[in-house]
Specification:
The chain contains four helices and nine strands. By secondary structure, the protein is of the alpha+beta class. Strand 4 and strand 5 form a beta hairpin. The radius of gyration is 18 Å and the shape is globular. It starts with a strand and ends with a helix.
Length: about 150
């Protein structure tokens, strides 16, 4: 399965515990997909919500297509995510639990050229959890460095 990753949300893995992931299609307009193929997507402040048994992603910035002139769309407009009904119902149940949220992890093109999003059900980390993660990563790096030397 060929997958060309366009944008990653590195901050999501730092700020959240990832419980479960889903693959969702993106319902886009013409100039938006052209802009995505150029790699002009930002997921930094994005999040997803379930509304009326439909899932939308907010805050995902797709830069206007340079040759799009008047056909360009609002870069921050909410984009609909395409999921199966049973997956949406499962997400509704998970997000109803306290502390869980939907976070976009990455946007990529599949082998047929369709834009997809990796969506995660995540639980927020506290500051002490983040410090533990950083300390573990630093100690792993130190161990790897020592093993390479010997």
């Amino acid at each position: 399965m060929g997958r060309k990753i366009i944008a990653n949300n590195k901050k999501a893995r730092h700020d959240y515990f990832i419980e479960d992931t889903y693959e969702a299609g993106l319902a886009l307009k013409g100039t938006e997909i052209k802009s995505i193929r150029q790699g002009r997507v930002n997921l930094k402040e994005s999040f997803a919500k379930v509304e009326n048994e439909e899932v939308f992603v907010y805050g995902m910035h797709i830069s206007p297509y340079e040759q799009g002139n008047r056909f360009n769309h609002d870069p921050l407009r909410p984009k609909k995510l395409l999921l199966h009904k049973r997956e949406i119902r499962k997400l509704i149940g998970l997000c109803a639990q306290d502390g869980f949220t939907l976070v976009p992890l990455s946007v990529y093109l599949d082998d047929r050229g369709r834009a997809k999003m990796e969506l995660a059900v995540a639980r927020g980390k506290h500051n002490y959890d983040k410090r533990k993660t950083i300390a573990k990563r630093d100690s792993d790096r130190k161990i790897d460095r020592i093993l390479k030397q010997h």
